[in-house]
Design goal:
Layout (H helix, E strand, L loop, with lengths): L1 E8 L2 E14 L4 E5 L5 E2 L6 H4 L1 H5 L2 H4 L4 H6 L8 H13 L17 H9 L12 H14 L12 H14 L12 E3 L5 E3 L1 E2 H13 L5 H16 L10 H9 L4 E5 L3 E6 L4 E7 L4 H15 L4 H11 L1 E4 L5 E7 L3 H5 L3
Antiparallel strand pairs: 1-2, 1-12, 2-3, 2-10, 4-7, 5-6, 8-9, 9-10, 11-12
Helix pairs in contact: 5-7, 8-9, 9-10, 11-13
């Protein structure tokens, strides 16, 4: 294990987080690595960009005249704000369905202000407020365009999930995901299959997603369109006070960044032709975000304005209830230098 992030209190390191980072180019060459990048990892929501490829490739996005906001939310793990629920609802309406078709489950909005908004209207949270509702609306648009029976679309043997599995196999250059030993396949929080692969494979997939290299022309164009949509509407991919939205509001198409559950991040850096996959082994979001910021610092040349915008992500100050600075969440000594190849 590699201790990548430490948490201080005063001058003392109070706790630390182990992790692994893989940075890979579009040909599969490992550009930089820290920790065990061979260990299979469930990427969870970090690969929603890959899972949205059939929405574009199938022609569904054009057939239903989906906006940039709709395409962005197809890649999202959003807060369940009203703007997110409404966008998902409109996607479903465009393909002739309602929220009753969603099989991701009901989930309350992330923040109390949005929960209170529902309460004041005497409404209950629904599947539209699920952080994955946009992704599922995208699945249903694809299913409707392809002429599938959309019911039970979350099942591993449904044509929607079979197509997504085929996309993941091609992008990660693996075979037979989900077959044989089920130790490689699990069920995600939104009920679709999730597949465990080494970090280096996920990073390779996102390097291809960044460049289009090693992909069929139609798929390469789909990836480019997804990156552009998320860059133009980053609020839809997460929302208020969220890391992915903040980073992409600043860097726009320079970085496609997506967090997943249990401390996973995947990212694509198109101008560098690189993909990134990382994992904080204890599942901490605070550590995974600091690790991702370190990768951005190490690889992307940043303007003064970009550096200023990212300053709060580089050194996270912890304050107590009286507003007193009591410690920091920071990269361990030498991590940034190692990422830079020093």
């Amino acid at each position: 294990m590699a201790a990548l992030v430490e948490v201080t209190r005063g001058n003392w390191v109070e706790s630390w987080h182990d992790g692994a980072i893989a940075v890979v180019d579009s040909k599969g060459k490992i550009v930089r690595q820290i920790g065990d990048i061979e260990r299979p990892v469930f990427p969870r929501s970090a690969i929603k960009g890959l899972q949205a490829l059939p929405l574009i490739e199938s022609g569904a996005a054009d057939a239903y005249a989906l906006s940039q906001e709709a395409i962005s939310i197809a890649c999202a793990s959003h807060n369940g704000e009203e703007i997110h629920a409404q966008a998902s609802k409109e996607m479903l309406s465009a393909c002739g369905l309602t929220a009753s078709a969603l099989e991701c489950g009901a989930q309350s909005p992330k923040f109390e202000v949005d929960q209170a908004h529902l309460h004041r209207q005497n409404l209950q949270a629904t599947a539209l407020h699920n952080n994955c509702s946009g992704k599922h609306a995208g699945f249903l648009c694809f299913s409707q365009k392809a002429g599938f029976d959309y019911q039970r679309y979350v099942r591993p043997d449904h044509p929607v999930q079979c197509e997504i599995r085929a996309v993941l196999e091609e992008m990660t250059e693996t075979r037979n995901l989900g077959e044989g030993s089920m130790s490689w396949c699990g069920t995600d929080g939104c009920s679709i299959p999730t597949y465990a692969l080494p970090l280096k494979n996920w990073a390779h997939a996102f390097a291809k997603f960044a460049t289009g290299q090693g992909m069929k022309p139609q798929r390469a164009k789909a990836a480019e369109r997804l990156r552009a949509a998320v860059a133009s509407a980053p609020y839809m991919v997460a929302g208020h006070d969220r890391y992915c939205t903040g980073i992409m509001q600043t860097l726009k198409e320079r970085a496609f960044v997506k967090i997943g559950a249990e401390g996973v991040f995947c990212a694509a850096f198109p101008e560098l032709g690189l993909g990134v996959a990382l994992k904080c082994w204890d599942g901490s979001f605070r550590a995974a975000e600091r690790m991702m910021t370190g990768v951005i610092e190490a690889f992307l040349p940043l303007s003064e304005a970009e550096q200023t915008a990212l300053a709060d992500y580089k050194l996270i100050q912890m304050k107590n209830w009286n507003g007193i600075h009591v410690g920091d969440i920071r990269l361990n000594d030498g991590v940034l230098e190692h990422l830079r190849g020093a």
